[in-house]
Design goal:
By secondary structure, this protein is of the alpha+beta class. It is 24% helix and 26% strand. It has a single domain (7-18, 30-170), classed as 60s Ribosomal Protein L30, Chain: A (2-Layer Sandwich), CATH 3.30.1330.50. It is built from four helices and six strands; from the N terminus they run βββαααβαββ.
Length: 186
């Protein structure tokens, strides 16, 4: 009989909306709002070096919390700025590559923004994230709030996402042991 231990992590990310004014920041401007790999019709794009998918960035950070291998930051910047990889699903896939023997069982997102209203798109986002993670959509929870306008996100300046991730691994599997290079030992 195999015994499992359940582990969890939290990821967070936030982005401002693209400035639609004429000033050029030097960054390639996003033209679409993508959340969880799903394009939100008519949504204001987020400012980022990547596609700005704040949901997948929070997910990537949560996976990094499980594996103890950080992807966003230097590695994602290298992929984006040097190799031109702007698709945030590629960052999630990179993070999943460090999940040695760990299986995601549930993921939950809490999104704060004034606009867009996400309720019409939640099922699409759930299916997109489930497909990316290889889990069923009923294992992907998404809630959204305006936060009563108390924060910059609730006032319409951008989007903030928290992601809670639950995973399991065989009892005693010490995945977070790292070598001096920062990668897990196999």
């Amino acid at each position: 009989m195999i015994w499992y231990e359940y582990i969890s992590a939290i990821g967070q990310d936030s982005h401002r909306y693209e400035d639609t004014g004429g000033e050029d920041s030097g960054q390639k401007k996003n033209t679409r709002l993508i959340l969880g790999g799903f394009e939100i019709p008519g949504g204001t794009p987020l400012k980022a070096n990547s596609d700005g998918d704040v949901l997948l960035h929070a997910l990537t950070n949560a996976i990094s919390g499980i594996t103890c291998v950080n992807v966003l930051g230097a590695e994602a910047d290298r992929l984006c700025l040097e190799e031109g990889v702007r698709d945030s699903s590629e960052y999630v896939k990179l993070a999943l590559g460090s999940m040695y023997g760990i299986r995601i069982t549930h993921v939950s997102f809490s999104v704060e923004c004034k606009t867009p209203k996400l309720s019409p798109y939640i099922e699409n986002i759930r299916e997109s994230v489930a497909d990316l993670l290889g889990i069923t959509p009923d294992s992907v929870g998404i809630t959204a709030t305006s936060g009563e306008g108390l924060s910059a996100f609730g006032k319409g300046e951008g989007i903030m996402v928290f992601c809670s991730l639950t995973a399991r691994r065989a009892y005693g599997d010490d995945t977070c042991r790292q070598t001096e290079e920062g990668l897990p030992e196999l």
